[in-house]
Every structure is written in structure tokens, then in C-alpha cells.
């Protein structure tokens, strides 16, 4: 089972800070994959885990989506560095598993490193250009410019529609009745 | 959406003329929102083959397409290419197109435009709105809407 680290309860309130814009704001957990910076909403984040429970499944359909042993269950885990076709197959010591809420339950995202929590005005989040990636439409819910760099926001809800996650669910053993 | 046959009209069409690998191409000027230079391009994961990444433009992000890559031109392009911001094109409604050099705006009369042969510079006529002449050089008016949303592999003859 993955060890639980740096867990922070999901923030459900909208924060306002004096002197700043009164627009809705969103808290994001930022993480790194390769040279890129990505984010997921804290509201959709369940836990951050050490990747100790990651099980390598060598069969071809699971090159990107593998299994995470979590509290007696097997959850789909997306290796983001492989999905993005960057980096090596080795899991770096800084790697963390982000357990996010998907439509069919929790889905793990294997990131190279967790960076920080950032609070961003929702209005500054813009659509991610569909032509800029071959990943399924909806994988990125948006992009935002933050502190001189671009953050790509992953839509945790959409992960259940991801082909490899669907195959994982289809191949998962049914619980005994 | 089908585009009207320009050759059947009597109105001059303003085109932005640009260079790619020594060839002259044109695009409707009203599709060009701005011409930029030296833009920082941000890499994106799983980039399509003809896409360089994205850039930030007026508070939004646009896909950056390389016309050299789209037309299968090998070798490095110029050190400072031009970036055309195009509107009303592609699934995102706008995109940035990298070309070698933006030249000038010209007005082309329908009488000066010919129906393209099956291929011009190796590009099939389907992606061409017409061929003409610009300062003694052949000019190809590209149908960028078709060209940039098709998956067909193309090779520009240079």
C-alpha cells in the first residue's frame, strides 16, 4: 500500500484576499512531469501517496495505465511521464501518486515531483488548444499562465473516459459475491 | 463550410504574401489577426507532428503550427520566422502559424488567378484556392482551413 504523505484536506471554500481581485479563485496542487508543470484542483484530490504500491503490469495495454495497490483495492494509475512520452521508465525518488476523484472512483496520477499549492483566479484559466496535443480532448481542462510559466490543468473527472483506464476497469477482476 | 469561388467574383482579394522555403504563398488578409516575431513557444505533451507547442496571445493560448512541418519541408528554417495569428480556423477558432517570412499585402484580381493544376509545388489542388503571379514569381493561394485540419501527409517540392 502506498504511504501517505503531505496530505492536505481538500479546500472547499473560495478564498478572497484583501486588495486582490474579487473573482472566484481555485486552489491547485502543482506538480512536475519532465520539464512541464501541471496542476489538479485540490477539490478533486483525495490523497498524495508515496509510490510504494505501484505494481508494474508488463502487458502491452498497461504501458501507460498500471495498477496501484491501495487499501486492499487495485486502482488504475496513469504514469504521466510515459503518457506524455518523456523521461525514463524508472520512478524517480521524488515521485508521488496523486489520487484524484474520477467519475468511476479514484484514479492515480504518477508525477515526477509535487511542487506546491497555488491559488489562481478561475477567470485566468483558459481552454487548452485542442490542436496542441494528441491526447483525448478534455484531458486538459485548461491552461493558465502563472509566475512566468504555463500550467496545464488535468481534469480528474475525465480520466475515467481515458481509453487505458477504461480497459483497466474492463479487465479488473469482479469482486466475489 | 464551402468557400465561394473567388474566380467567379469581380472584387479584388487582399492577400498576405509570405515565403516558405523560397516559395511564395498567400492567405486572405482578413484571416490574419496579427503578425508576430520571436515568440516564446511552450512545449506541450504529445504534440502532433506539425505542431511546435502553444503560445500565449492576448490572454489565451493558441496552438502553434509549423507550415514547414505541415508541408514536409526538411532542414532548419530561418532564425527569426514570422508567426501569423489566424482567426476562424481549426477546432480552437484561432491558431498561430509559423512561416519563414511575411512579405507584403497584395491585391489580386479574379482575372489574375488561375485554377490550379492537380499539383502545385507538390501540393494537391484540393488545398489551393488559386495560383497567380506576384512580382514575376508564382503565387499559391492556400486554403489553410483545409490544409491545417487535414491529416494527409504533404511534401512541398522546393
CATH fold naming of chain B: OB fold (Dihydrolipoamide Acetyltransferase, E2P)
Relative helix content of chain B: under 10%
Structural class of chain A: mainly beta
Seen as an oligomer or otherwise, the chain set is heterodimer
Integer tally of domains of chain B: 1
The span between the termini of chain B is 31 Å
| Global outline of chain A | globular
CATH H-tier superfamily of chain B: CheA-289, Domain 4
How is the largest sheet of chain A built, in terms of strand order?
A: 3-7-8-6-5-4
Low-confidence stretches of chain A: 5-20
Largest sheet of chain B: 5 strands, mixed
Biggest sheet, spatial arrangement of strands of chain B: 8-1-2-12-11
CATH class of chain B: Mainly Beta
Radius of gyration of chain A: 16 Å
Major sheet size, sense and barrel closure of chain A: 6 strands, mixed
Per DSSP E runs of 2 or more residues, the count of β-strands of chain A stands at 11
Shape of chain B: globular
SS summary, helix count of chain A:
2
Would you tell me the overall average pLDDT of chain B?
90
If interface size is counted as residues with C-beta under 8 Å from the partner's C-beta, which chains form the largest one?
A-B, 21 and 22 residues
